[in-house]
Fold each of these.
Amino acid sequence: MITNTSDRFLYIGGSEANMIYMNYHTKTFREWWYKKLEKITEEIPTNQYMEVGTILEEAVIDLYEQLNNVKGIRSKQAIKGIARANTDYIQGDKVSDVKVTKHASEWHKKGKVPIHYKRQLIHYCYVLGLNKASIIAYQTNNNLINNPFQELDEDNLYEIEVPITSKEIEIHRQKLEYLEFCRDMNVFPE
């Protein structure tokens, strides 16, 4: 998994996909875009939940494959223009992102994930030319957060299908191409 690379500033990655939907005049977007224009490499901030998710990612995929009797591609990386994808898992024509979260069962029950995770999956579908996506979510608790090196329980694993339309991928492509143009012109988007 790419967390910090010397050329990260050159691309928009999946974790940044939500940024391209922001109002270009907000302080948050302008600060982010300034770093892209100035080619400033920054560390990705982490917290305990993110660190545990990283530790458990392979184990979650192992459990998913075992339960579903499948084998997929892990940690595929690709670049398409300004867009960069560093995926967790691909099986056939479906890309999946792994999330270890206190919200897994809630997402599964609702059949819906937060919009920024959907946009991350749209980003992956665009870069990789895929059209199906899901979140493979593992329900965590304080015990697992404090001790991530324990056996995972299949009852805590969920897959939430995330419908991605060709229209959503096209809108994403347009936004990325416009930002790539702006970057090449060294200007802020309007």
Amino acid sequence: MSANSHLSAARYVAQTIPGILVQLGLKPLISRFVLTETEQGDAWLFVVLEDDHLLSYEDYASSVVLGYLSTALHGLPVVFSNNYGLRYAVLLSSALLQEPN
């Protein structure tokens, strides 16, 4: 399956996340979105933040924020990474998320 098959979900997440961050009192300092797919077929959308504008990233990485993002995105898993820049990773598809046949 190609990452292109997840464009609709990626667009939804990309349009939704800035507003969610604003609701949480955070600035939506998003520099870009990157859609990719693993060899196992998992589609990920990376939401890359402009880390040079942040004094502290802890507010963006808190478990409360991650849980709120996941809930607002209809249960999609959301993780935060601060290695080589700041980003959210949203799992758009996975064998674990797909309905059984």
Amino acid sequence: MSSKMPRLMTQEARYGVRLGYILFPIEFRDLRQSLAKNGYELSAIGDLPAPPARIGFGGEIARKGEVRVICESDSGEIGTVGRTLQGAHASFDELSSIIQTELGVNLHENVRFYWMISHYKADSGKMPYKEICKTGNGKFIKEFSEILGENVSAFSVRLSPAATIINQENWLDIAIEPDVINEKLYHIGVVFRNASREKTEEFAKNIEKNLIKLISTIEV
């Protein structure tokens, strides 16, 4: 393994849930009022139709400090965006508590799946493109080079569950590649979704130390 422990720097993290209702169970006006009551700064919107008309909504709803609340009523998703995964997760727990207390809606009932998305840069002291190219299958890289008439190499490592398809509720996608701006850094993108709250929380708890292990394994 690399003699220098890779250092992770979080760029952005998202944490939330997709609910299983046909109609999104939270009314837009009520959600905004509840967030404002609990110290959130509401995002600007245009004129709203008069009640009882329901409003479809999407995007940023409110923010508190660096944390943003996002929601897509059509797909039934609601979550938070933060600078760190731990912060986004803690803010989602706070959001869930507010909605339960103020609106009587439990975000942990009738769940299709929980989701988390995070992006990192990582510094290991090595050149990522030199390390990642070692992971390519030599036979295929040789054949690809012959087909293209160019000497090519593997540019990224991408991991997903074996023998599964993308369009399912339980999914994992980790991409590790050189950062396009700074070639001395890795860029890592992580997508995880699962119907189990416990599995999602466990994955989020361990993902950053596991990413360090993955990079160290690449750099053997």
Amino acid sequence: MVWSLASAKRRKRLSEDAAHARASAIRRSAAWIAVIVYNFIGIADITSTAVAIDAGAGAEANPFLSLLMEHAGDGWVFAKLALQGVISFMVLWFPHWIVVSFFSLATLGNAWIVYNNFLIAGIF
């Protein structure tokens, strides 16, 4: 979608900026660490959500995910993992420090959600 909205000049600049960011071993390493942590937390999110819902202690708060759970059954897990894969690829493709920083903050927020899910389920 971004590609269709940006001009050819902007797409070229974005591609060049991404290549420049990937040229740094430190940025690539930081991106890989952030993506690995994100995916562990993402799997914990799936687990904590399923545990809380199965315990009857809560419901999915995200309306999109709730709708997906309702219509896709257990397929929501695969959809969530696929989305995690796309997001991970995007961060690894453009490991600029601003991208990795915001991504890490969002991952921290997701970790809080996982903790809260386990609290709701009575695990913690």
